[in-house]
């Protein structure tokens, strides 16, 4: 018995992936760690952490809107970033798109690398609908 609902708004989601873009459990939505990869797998905004952050949140918005929510429903984020260069610009993107205060809880973790080549940041989030 499945106790959660996988959320896959893109009908072209690769069948071989072993994860869902998001999972809904009751009124909670867990948004998988996401990079700025487009439909063809290319990173959007190569070398620009702010552009990558914006693209990731746009992907989150599509998922949340498919459930009747929005970015305003995000209550927690975790950022995994490979560089501090330009990282402060991600705060400007968050201010613009998350429309706080109130702001979600947040954690930032600098890592040596991410699975996706050219990805400078990967973000996961939790939303409450």
UniProtKB/TrEMBL annotation:
Q: Name one GO molecular function term.
A: deaminase activity
- Gene3D superfamilies reported in the protein's UniProt record: RutC-like
The protein in question is named: Enamine deaminase RidA
| Superkingdom, natural source | Bacteria
What does the sequence similarity comment in the record state about its family? Belongs to the RutC family.
Organism of this sequence: Oceanibaculum pacificum
This protein's GO cellular component annotations are:
cytosol
């Amino acid at each position: 018995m499945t106790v959660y609902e996988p959320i896959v708004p893109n009908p072209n989601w690769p069948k071989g992936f072993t994860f869902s873009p998001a999972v809904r459990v009751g009124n909670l939505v867990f948004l998988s760690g996401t990079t700025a990869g487009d439909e063809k797998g290319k990173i959007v905004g190569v070398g620009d952490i702010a552009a990558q952050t914006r693209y990731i949140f746009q992907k989150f918005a599509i998922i949340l809107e498919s459930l009747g929510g929005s970015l305003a429903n995000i209550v927690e984020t975790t950022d995994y970033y490979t560089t501090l260069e330009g990282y402060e610009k991600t705060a400007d993107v968050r201010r613009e798109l998350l429309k706080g205060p109130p702001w979600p809880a947040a954690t930032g973790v600098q890592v040596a690398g991410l699975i996706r080549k050219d990805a400078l940041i990967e973000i996961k989030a939790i939303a409450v609908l």
